[in-house]
Design brief:
Layout: H1 2-11, H2 16-23, H3 27-35, H4 42-51, H5 56-59, H6 71-76, E1 84-85, E2 88-89, H7 92-108
Antiparallel strand pairs: 1-2
Helix pairs in contact: 2-3
Length: about 110
Amino acid sequence: MLKRLADLRKSRNWSMQETADRLGIAKSTYAGYESGYREPPLHALCQMADLFDTTVDYILARSDHKIVQLELASLLKTANESISLDQQLLTSEEIRDFIAFIRYKRDMG
């Protein structure tokens, strides 16, 4: 898990501080996850998987499938594309919520 977290963070050129800020946690907490000094709770693992567009299984080295490829997830990173609903553009947060809902629905069968 340790190497995978570091690799995911570095692939985005984020510092530990920037990653911690994005997760809403202290830098020392995140550094503890990467170093193995701390074990992240389940909710933190889920947050990290969402942040890095991957799965908890990948982070925990239970799977080698690194990236969750969803067209909407890719769309979030494309500056010149947008999604609208009822003539209103969806915010990045609304799109993330939609992706999370679909993942949850698929997991529930």
